[in-house]
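Both lines are retained for reference:
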Amino acid sequence: VRCIASARDAVDKAIDMVYEELAAEDEDEEECSCGHEHADDEECSCGHHHHDHDHDDEDEDGADEMPDEDLRIAEDRFFEDIAAKKSRLKPSVDTSDEFFARTEARRCMECSYLCLKCVDVCPNRANIGIDLRETGLFEDPFQVLHIDAYCNECGNCATFCPHSGRPYKDKFTLFSLREDFENSTNSGFLVENDEVSIRLDGKVYQGNIGKDGSLNADVSEEIKAIIEEVFLSYSYLLSPVEE
């Protein structure tokens, strides 16, 4: 229904454009340049012939309908104007202006360096940025840790991710319950007292973590760094949750 209404509006606008052009032409033809008043059907000295407009009413019914060919031409012209607008983005200001250029540059979100979009858009706060700058092991200063206990798999993070990933599935995940750890396929870890279960690409590793936060497990330095940083600086994430 909206499409039909929109199409009708477009046709009406096209018809109005044609009527305006015809009206302007009629005004030019009827206007006398001498400035004198003349009786109907009287020929002016300037060469302009005045006629009785009362008879024009008799032809109004016929004037209301445009020939199909004229209507088609008017529609084509109107649709060409619309297509031209859609064919390119027109800036609202001069792009060569230095102030405009600086303003546009400041709008950049710098996702290539600090993204964390999935952290911002998660309604359950199930993604968190872990600051790992001091380790020197990662190209990105923050690594996203997914919190399984907070996630309801709504997919919001996947929708807004500027990359091709699904954070709730792809990001390294912290599990709070053994059952959740075993039922998931996510790479991640589970801390039970000082014992740590770690799953990487479907394979499970066992390890233990000391009171000083050092992890003893046969995993990469990057994985160790994430788990140790969580233990030392984000220990509140290790609190028990309800089953």
User: Anything to note?
Assistant: The mean pLDDT is 82. Strands lie at 127-131, 142-147, 173-175, 188-192, 195-200, 203-209, 215-216. The longest strand covers residues 203-209. Residues 152 and 211 are 32 Å apart (CA to CA).
